[in-house]
Amino acid sequence: xxxxxxxxxxxxxxxxxxxxxxxxxxxxxxxxxxxxxxxxxxxxxxxxxxxxxxxxxxxxxxxxxxxxxxxxxxxxxxxxxxxxxxxxxxxxxxxxxxxxxxxxxxxxxxxxxxxxxxxxxxxxxxxxxxxxxxxxxxxxxxxxxxxxxxxxxxxxxxxxxxxxxxxxxxxxxxxx
Amino acid sequence: xxxxxxxxxxxxxxxxxxxxxxxxxxxxxxxxxxxxxxxxxxxxxxxxxxxxxxxxxxxxxxxxxxxxxxxxxxxxxxxxxxxxxxxxxxxxxxxxxxxxxxxxxxxxxxxxxxxxxxxxxxxxxxxxxxxxxxxxxxxxxxxxxxxxxxxxxxxxxx
Amino acid sequence: xxxxxxxxxxxxxxxxxxxxxxxxxxxxxxxxxxxxxxxxxxxxxxxxxxxxxxxxxxxxxxxxxxxxxxxxxxxxxxxxxxxxxxxxxxxxxxxxxxxxxxxxxxxxxxxxxxxxxxxxxxxxxxxxxxxxxxxxxxxxxxxxxxxxxxxxxxxxxxxxxxxxxxxxxxxxxxxxxx
Lengths: 176, 158, 178
Description:
The structure holds 3 protein chains of 3 kinds.
Chain A: H1 9-16, H2 41-54, E1 60-65, E2 68-73, E3 77-81, E4 91-94, E5 97-101, E6 106-108, E7 118-129, E8 133-139, E9 144-150, E10 153-164
Antiparallel strand pairs in A: 1-2, 1-5, 3-10, 4-7, 5-6, 7-10, 8-9
Chain B: H1 15-27, H2 34-37, H3 39-78, H4 83-92, H5 99-108, H6 110-126, H7 150-157
Chain C: H1 3-13, E1 17-21, H2 27-39, E2 55-59, H3 70-73, E3 75-79, E4 86-90, H4 91-97, H5 101-110, H6 116-121, E5 124-126, H7 134-137, E6 140-143, H8 159-164
Parallel strand pairs in C: 1-2, 1-6, 2-5
Antiparallel strand pairs in C: 3-4
Helix pairs in contact in C: 2-5
């Protein structure tokens, strides 16, 4: 279902067809990674899988939640606005992961990454109301004035973990 | 307007007028000069401020959209792709990232943004999509030093 | 903020110095490009309230090119503030008086009028010729690409090359050149 483009910094240079001789002419602002330039897709995936096993750096993911996209990493706080059923203390898994990445590679979903590949778990830590928003309208010289007050429901979420649970291009572990 | 002395209550002319004015004065508490002390001035300013705040909730969203677009355009320029073709390429590849996350990635995760730009380019290349925009000045990662005559110019001067 | 983070912050917001050669460039089109670098619009961290703009050094501003008959037709307006104090100066007159004025005004006009504009303009350095003070040129680390190629004029090509160039015909002896 989902095809992955696991892009390494060097790989995209291969895309551009600017490796080799012309590399002298490419000004790279980012420091080059210590990973040697892989040549084929297989190598890229193997390298990524090795990195996933080693868990060298912390991950981040972009998740889709209540119509909005959030870039999250371990320990983040999210404030979600509007009616949302989960209650305080609920542990939930955010399934709609659009993109997940570490320091060295990115997994880009089309539009979502393969289910079970990336797990983002979160805990609902508080539910409450936002500050009072005053909706005020007035027209000059027309004796028109309206004032309304509104408070939206807010749910605060703590992101517990963002981890790449499985290896790329492998059948998902049966977690359900 | 918090009266701690009983003597001050003598001037208060009635419960309703006092509370009505107090409501406005509380909102004008952080103003300066007559704007905070004089009711007829304060009420005008408070009304204006509330009306602005109401409108600004919508404007803020529009402003953010413009800011995200600016940031995406800036980041795209570094990768020698136009913002339009980035969106087109990502759309064709079914990558549904919105402006907010794209600009977030551009600012905080430049390597991931680089990959996205490469994916968009590759997808458009596969689709034989030609971006008609004239990209006059590639900068950043695709800047070809051969075309930049700065060094030659500096050498010439010395 | 840790020491490493602090350095990262400095590096992120450090000013880059760009150089732009105005030779044979349209000042109004180049102003759009120069503006981008001055305001920091070319950085993904841009925000109108953060100070991420760069410095642009313009050289050869004496040799800008205006379109059409702009040199004769375009007038720059100035008002002293007193009654009858309005003056209109033609572009060629302005340029004779101060060769940096036209490009400066073009960039100023390209930016939105807000409190930042005058401070942003401070970061634009314009020089009429190629001579730049040494302390400025040593900061420069990038060149902004010119919008169009500088055309080569016939009188700048050496006579030998002109003679060598294949000709279709020669003018007859009695042909009167205007």
